[in-house]
Amino acid sequence: MNKLRIVFMGTPDFAVGILDTIYQHNYEIVGVVTTADKPAGRGQKIHESAVKQYAVSKGLRVLQPTNLKSEEFLTELKSLNANLQVVVAFRMLPEVVWKMPQLGTFNLHASLLPNYRGAAPINWAIINGETQTGVTTFFIDDKIDTGEMILHKETPIQKNETVGELHNKLMLLGSEAVLETLTKIQNGNVKTQKQNDTTQLKAAPKLNKDNCKIDWTKPGIDIYNLIRGLNPYPAAWSFIEDNNNEWTVKFYDVDFIPENHFHAIGAVIATKKELKIAVTDGYIQVKSLQFPGKRKMKSNELLNGINFSKKALAK
User: Fold this and answer.
1) Does position 180 have pLDDT exceeding 90, yes or no?
2) CATH architecture of structural domain 5-187
3) Is the dihedral of CA 50, 53, 58, 59 positive or negative?
4) Torsions phi, psi for 36 (to 5 deg)
5) Do 99 and 68 touch, CB atoms closer than 8 A?
6) What does the chain look like in DSSP terms, one character per residue?
7) In sequence order, which residues have a C-beta less than 8 Å from that of residue 124 and are 6 or more positions away?
8) How far, in Å, CA of 143 to CA of 211, rounded?
């Protein structure tokens, strides 16, 4: 049996859930690698990653390299004498890093590989209307999310599930997958499987302003999936124009109501209690949204303070 000495690498909240599981199961964590502190927000206050905050709270040794190939970092990493590295939501590692430990470096990815390789697998599974997803552990190689798979676990995606809800579900599932993977490596009985690249694969590219913008000409179900696949973060958005005003609006909780109608695509239909936007095959009923400079609020709250004209248009 291998006595594991683990270096953990990760950055966001999702990675914290996995790191906490490893810590709570009394594995020896000899170091934690995360991103460097950086100024963020309007006040440009120094922001520490969620993983760093957790690691410091547990008294774990933290490394924050700006360059993963620097001699200083490589020397420090080697001095930890780890025999296994676990990576969750970090960045691409140079070969000199992932080849360093004797037992290898494995990654937890929040999709059923080989589909949804890339930066935003949880979001894109919902955006594309998938009904099933999961997590995969695999040994890292020289490309992104392509290494030999150790194990995967599946879970259904509910038709009204948001990315925030699925994120938390996959964090728990990922914790189970990492524990099972650690047991296999510890017992020396890992059997890997190569990823099949022969089929048409679905990608999970980084989210940006363009691919988070709502196209109101698309079918209602596609718009609904986009909004819930970006709720609560980073949020789908659109312009709303009315009476020479143009607002950049973020959309959160919505429903799709299939219905034949004669409204223009993008028409904003508002009463004192209800806000909906016309699409090709029905309406997107908006339950919560955020106008610039305001907090996220329910539609009926917003409608108490704003009157849309009959010419209001989302575009």
Assistant:
1) yes
2) 3-Layer(aba) Sandwich (3.40)
3) positive
4) -70, 150
5) no
6) ----EEEEEE-SHHHHHHHHHHHHTT-EEEEEE-PPPEEETTTTEEE--HHHHHHHHTT--EE--S-TT-HHHHHHHHHT--SEEEEES--PPPHHHHTSSTT-EEEEESSSTTTTEES-HHHHHHHTT-SEEEEEEEE--SSSS-SPEEEEEEEE--TT--HHHHHHHHHHHHHHHHHHHHHHHHHT----B----SS-PPEEPPP-TTTTB--TTS-HHHHHHHHHTTTTTT-EEEEEEETTEEEEEEE-SEEEEE----SPTTBEEE-SS-EEEEETTEEEEESEEE-TTS--EEHHHHHHH----TT-EE-
7) 116, 118, 202, 203, 204, 205, 229
8) 24
CA dist 75 and 83 (Å) reads: 15
The whole-number pLDDT of residue 306 equals 85
Q: What is the CA radius of gyration of the chain?
A: 23
280 within 8 A of 270, measured Cβ to Cβ: no
Q: Which part of the chain is CATH 3.10.25.10?
A: 220-314
- Residue 222: both structure tokens together: 């596609």
pTM higher than 0.85: yes
User: Order of strands across the sheet with 84-88?
Assistant: 62-63, 28-33, 5-10, 84-88, 105-109, 132-139, 149-156
Amino acid 46: pLDDT: 82
pLDDT, tens only, 284-313: 999 999 999 999 999 999 888 888 999 999
How far apart CA 143 and CA 136 sit, in angstroms, is: 16
Pick the CATH number of 220-314 from 3.30.565.10, 3.30.1490.20, 3.10.25.10, 3.40.50.300: 3.10.25.10
Per residue in 115-132, pLDDT tens?
999 999 999 999 999 999
